[in-house]
TrEMBL record:
This is Translation machinery-associated protein 22. It comes from the Eukaryota. Residues 65-136 form the SUI1 domain. Interacts with the 40S ribosomal subunit. InterPro entries: DENR/SUI1_TIF (IPR050318), DENR_C (IPR046447), SUI1 (IPR001950), SUI1_dom_sf (IPR036877). It comes from Hohenbuehelia grisea. It holds the Pfam family SUI1. Belongs to the DENR family.
Amino acid sequence: MARAERRASADLSFCCFFFSEALQSKIGTLSLENQAKLDKDTAKKEAKAEAKANAELKKKLASQITIKRIERTKRKHVTSIHGLEAFGIDLKKAAKQLASKFATGASVSKNPQGLDEVVVQGDVAYEIVDLIEEGVGVLKGIPADNVEVVEEKKKKSAE
């Protein structure tokens, strides 16, 4: 058994030596053309990544956050916030922060268009705008210029 182990060990060391020698010979044969092509590909990938980052930044700056104040009954209101996901904000964390800040219920739900939005119980639209302007908690990094407040009244039913 010891003889087999010594033989395996010798084979392994020979393989490692052969592999490193082969690697050195391959590196030595790398031509200037291949090196130039490799540099060109690397520069192309860097430029592509930079362009992607710029496009993402433009998308963030063009995105709008809509805060709707929706009337449920005569004196009850619900505040709906749509567009936070464009800024990379986790909606569940935002809902939890708003619920604890205003001591109301808040949840993530889908609006009629099928997009996620944060729904907060109560008339807190302008307080949410203040939080976004201050950049508190999860709501950091949102430009205040991209926030729009909309008031939606319930239509009166025909009697």
